[in-house]
Specification:
The structure is a single chain. With 398 residues, the protein is mostly helical. It has one domain. Helix content is 60%, strand content 0%. α2 packs parallel to α8, α3 runs antiparallel to α8 and α4 packs antiparallel against α6. It starts with 35 loop residues before the first helix and ends with a helix. Its main location: membrane.
């Protein structure tokens, strides 16, 4: 459904319940009085604008077709949407946190704790990006060996042998289901100093295939993406009427951002190689929120993709990796039966597949760098927001 169809939800004449909260419908004589200071700090139009921001971004994301969903381009759009929504949310949270009173202080602290849990997933995502880079490096060898030759020379046995060796290495990396059990740690800083898993950001390592290891990693061998996702999403409940009323509506953007955080982390775990992942964990949001329909639609599509026969044991649902897997298996089969001198038709087939891989390589080379910068930025913003929230809550407590 296009974003224009939702514009009516945001007109000033529409009740706030259409946005998932019901300040206007709550009786004023309830036990929980609204804090006048919070009420003065929060602008009603800003609350509406935040809900509209989330809705518009996820409607755009849900427009992706089957080929676009779970591609690098789509994932970058998702992380961009998260960064924009988080910045809008941070502005709201900043005003509320400075005068936080129960239950607002509890809701803010709860969100901060969930966000901190996401830092490990961001670390693991960086690890997975490094895995994808190593896959791309082998693909580049295949492309160099089998790709077009400006001199017009025919493919020789040495080129095919070189491509075959890279394909074997690539097949091992793709088919290895023991997807990365890192054991060491280094800091997010370029210097590579050590640090805790919540403050680190590092490439993955410790695979049973030695060449698929990096020198360091950011999460422990026993770490589980599935458990981390469960911890982020557990006990996230839509705010009750009294919570909405006593927080002057701030309970709603906090719940919204909790849901956006959970969905974004689930998507990262689905698309980027991550150890011990499970996408079947419960995830649901009330349909009364305008952003709920596109979010739940995307979640259901991702789960269905993970259930496909050829995807069940895959370490990554990334569309570009699916292309690499398909081309790799095709080339492995084709190069097994080659006789030299090679027939022109067979050579043309190999070169065409190599050209397809070359396009994927180009997409990954550009896309992974941008993706890594976005993941880094989300990491920094979560850490900064956590610090600011704790400072404000500490100030209010005194």
């Amino acid at each position: 459904m296009p974003a224009a169809d939702h514009q009516g939800f945001f007109s000033s004449s529409v009740p706030l319940s259409s946005l998932g909260f019901s300040i206007l419908s709550i009786r004023r004589d309830q036990v929980h009085p609204i804090d006048p200071h919070i009420h003065m700090a929060v602008d009603h139009q800003e609350l509406l604008a935040f809900q509209r921001c989330v809705t518009d971004h996820f409607l755009h994301l849900s427009d992706a077709d089957a080929d676009g969903l779970l591609s690098l381009s789509w994932l970058r759009k998702l992380l961009h949407a998260y960064l924009v929504c988080h910045e809008e949310f941070r502005a709201l949270l900043d005003r509320g946190a400075r005068i936080a009173r129960p239950p607002l202080d509890r809701l803010i602290a709860d969100f901060s704790d969930r966000a901190v849990k996401a830092l490990d997933i961001l670390n693991a995502t960086r690890d997975g990006i490094d895995q994808l880079r190593r896959c791309r490096a082998h693909v580049e060898i295949v492309v160099a060996a089998l790709g077009p030759d400006s001199s017009g020379h025919r493919l020789g046995e040495g080129q095919v042998r070189r491509a075959r060796k890279a394909l074997n290495e690539l097949a091992i990396m793709i088919d290895d289901r023991d997807a990365g059990h890192p054991h060491r740690n280094r800091s997010f800083d370029r210097s590579g100093g050590s640090g805790s898993s919540n403050s680190s950001f590092a490439p993955i390592g410790s695979r049973r295939i030695s060449h698929f290891r990096s020198s360091s990693s950011s999460v422990s061998r026993s770490w589980s993406a599935a458990r981390q996702l469960q911890a982020i999403g557990s006990n996230v409940a839509a705010p009750r009427d009294h919570e909405v009323y006593t927080t002057a509506g701030l309970a709603v953007p906090i719940y919204t951002m909790n849901s956006v955080l959970s969905f974004a982390m689930r998507s990262l775990v689905a698309v980027i190689p991550c150890q011990d992942r499970c996408l079947q964990a419960h995830f649901s949001v009330p349909r009364t929120y305008t952003w709920a329909m596109p979010v739940m639609s995307l979640h259901e599509r991702i789960v269905e993709e993970s259930k496909k026969k050829d995807r069940k044991n895959s370490t990554s649902l990334l569309k570009e990796m699916q292309q690499i897997e398909r081309c790799t298996h095709h080339l492995m089969e084709a190069t097994e039966i080659i006789q030299f001198p090679m027939p022109e038709e067979q050579e043309e087939e190999l070169r065409q597949t190599a050209e397809e891989l070359a396009l994927v390589c180009k997409t990954m080379k550009e896309g992974l760098d941008i993706l890594e910068r976005q993941v880094r930025e989300i990491f920094i913003r979560i850490a900064r927001c956590r610090t600011e929230s704790l400072d404000c809550l500490s100030y209010c407590a005194h």
